[in-house]
């Protein structure tokens, strides 16, 4: 495993997204991932699997200190008292005294973000969330919390893959030394159908998914959290550290049309163009 160092903190470049990994089967998948070498696990209150994540960590016998663990607070629970209550419940479900990263899952214009951040800072000061951040925040909202409020934002987690441009957001996170976590990095398996990624896969002896992940993690600040449920795909997704894309190939992926957004619920903010 390789790491990005952000604000002095080492974060594994490839993690496991756990959305829909529920029940005993989900728990076994997360445990398998840890035993295969994953050290970055991403969950959320809304995934309803924090208990499974906690059990998987316990059963894997991997030291808690070796794992970078993220959870998130849903956008309908961002009032200050709600945040504190939900976070305590998450820690209880995960059976851990702290998470490495606590995120606002989606922005909510109906809630005063300053009060939300006060709750997040309180949890950080208590050592219950070592780092705090946001998810699904476009550039304007990220600047608002990071600059206008002066909150110590460690991360913005957003949809990012070869078919969606996030270059302005990337430039800002690099400038501010903020972690950029790419969810849906394989575009819900659409990378497998792309002719360029297929061609590059043949050239490097890798799958199109591995080419896409390599393109992501070669970018400054970017880590990726693909979801996988089979041992084959779990292994494949972390087998991306033994090659480097040539510059021309990297820029060819940059040039793929990037207007495909897959995650866009009705409560989503106005996205960057």
Automatic annotation (TrEMBL):
The active site is at residue 47. It catalyses: hydroxyacetone + NADP(+) = methylglyoxal + NADPH + H(+). Signal peptide: none annotated. GO terms for molecular function: oxidoreductase activity, acting on the CH-OH group of donors, NAD or NADP as acceptor. It comes from the Bacteria. Substrate binds at residue 105. The record marks 72 as: Lowers pKa of active site Tyr. The keyword NADP applies. This is Aldo/keto reductase. It comes from Gracilimonas sediminicola. Keywords: NADP, Oxidoreductase. Pfam families: Aldo_ket_red. Belongs to the aldo/keto reductase family. Residues 24-257 form the NADP-dependent oxidoreductase domain. SUPFAM superfamilies: NAD(P)-linked oxidoreductase.
């Amino acid at each position: 495993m390789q790491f990005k160092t952000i604000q002095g903190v080492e974060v594994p470049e490839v993690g496991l997204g756990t959305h829909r990994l529920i029940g005993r089967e989900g728990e076994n998948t997360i445990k398998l991932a840890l035993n295969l070498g994953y050290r970055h696990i991403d969950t959320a209150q809304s995934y309803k699997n924090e208990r499974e994540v906690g059990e998987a960590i316990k059963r894997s016998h991997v030291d808690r200190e070796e794992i970078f663990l993220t959870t998130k607070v849903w956008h309908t629970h961002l009032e200050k008292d709600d945040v504190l209550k939900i976070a305590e419940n998450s820690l209880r479900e995960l059976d851990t005294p702290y998470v490495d990263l606590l995120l606002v899952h989606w922005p909510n214009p109906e809630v005063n973000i300053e009060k939300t951040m006060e709750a997040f800072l309180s949890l950080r000061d208590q050592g219950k969330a070592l780092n705090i951040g946001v998810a699904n925040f476009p550039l304007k909202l990220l600047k608002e919390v990071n600059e206008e409020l002066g909150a110590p934002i460690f991360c913005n987690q957003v949809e990012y893959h070869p078919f969606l441009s996030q270059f302005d957001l990337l430039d800002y996170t690099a400038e501010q030394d903020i972690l950029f976590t790419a969810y849906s990095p394989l575009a819900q398996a659409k990378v497998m159908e792309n002719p360029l990624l297929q061609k590059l896969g043949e050239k490097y002896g890798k799958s199109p998914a591995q080419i896409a992940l390599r393109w992501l993690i070669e970018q400054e600040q970017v880590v990726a959290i693909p979801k996988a449920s089979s041992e084959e795909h779990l292994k494949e997704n972390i087998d991306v550290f033994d090659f480097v894309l040539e510059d021309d190939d990297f820029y060819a992926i940059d040039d793929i049309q990037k207007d495909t957004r897959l995650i866009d619920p009705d409560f989503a903010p106005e996205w960057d163009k």
